[in-house]
From TrEMBL:
Transmembrane segments: 87-106, 121-143, 171-191, 211-233
Protein name: DUF3307 domain-containing protein
The keyword Transmembrane is assigned to this record: yes
Organism name: Bizionia myxarmorum
Top-level taxon of origin: Bacteria
Pfam (any one): DUF3307
Record carries keyword Transmembrane helix: yes
Alphabetically ordered keywords of this record: Membrane, Transmembrane, Transmembrane helix
């Protein structure tokens, strides 16, 4: 199980944390001719070896790296501006499926000497990491169909403030759930609603209200599900 968590952790770091937006744009523009595509896959494979830290798994890690390249290539070849949002989710779903499939097909032939870090610590790190930048990018993809600039026109805010607020609230919800303090989650939702009530009342824009409400529920929902999954696995 700990190996599977390491594989997912490597994917989150490689695909979300350390991949610059400029690389993504370069790949979308040049497709298979983009050097960033091959650099990205190379870094991804290096991360797999670094995080797993056991060269006896080299066939599995190279297989996952090759599948990562194939999936990314398919996405670049078939996605258009109109289907970009859809292909983002297809791409991530295929990556996760490929990791699980490769792991379970290869599991019977594997052995491990790695006992550190512990399974609990690694799973906790993976969950916390998932709730930061990856979920922010996922939510950006979800809301890309709406133009937030039009909804908030004339109402400036701090740069990336919403992103960091979302990260902090998801981490807090996750911590409350794994500590079995569900009442604190309700308090956090209530507190955010109180702070937002004035802005929503002043804006008098139904679309903006719905946008914020959907975003809050999705953000909290993902954090709650992640916390529940962590407790179930433990």
């Amino acid at each position: 199980m700990i190996l599977l968590v390491k594989l997912v952790l490597a994917h989150l770091i490689g695909d979300f944390i350390i991949q610059p937006k400029s690389w993504v744009k370069n790949k979308e523009k040049k497709k298979l001719k983009s050097p960033k595509l091959y650099l990205h896959v190379g870094i991804h494979i290096a991360l797999l070896f670094l995080i797993v830290w056991d060269v006896s798994y080299w066939p599995l890690l190279l297989i996952i790296g090759a599948l990562h390249f194939i999936i990314d290539a398919l996405k670049l070849l078939f996605q258009t501006k109109r289907t970009k949002r859809r292909w983002f989710f297809i791409d991530q779903l295929l990556h996760i499926i490929s990791i699980f499939a490769a792991y379970f097909l290869y599991r019977d032939m594997m052995f491990s000497t790695a006992d550190f870090p512990t399974e609990t610590a690694l799973l906790l790190l993976t969950c916390l990491l998932f709730l930061t930048v990856p979920v922010s990018i996922i939510m950006q993809a979800i809301f890309s169909k709406w133009n937030i600039e039009k909804l908030t026109k004339g109402n400036e805010s701090l740069k990336d403030a919403g992103k960091y607020i979302g990260i902090l609230e998801r981490i807090l919800v996750f911590i409350f759930i794994i500590m079995d303090h569900w009442e604190a989650v309700g308090f956090l939702i209530t507190a955010k609603s109180v702070f937002r009530f004035g802005d929503l009342k002043e804006s008098k824009q139904r679309k903006l209200t719905e946008y914020i409400l959907i975003g809050t529920l999705i953000s909290f929902g993902i954090a709650i599900v992640t916390g529940v999954v962590f407790r179930f696995l433990m």
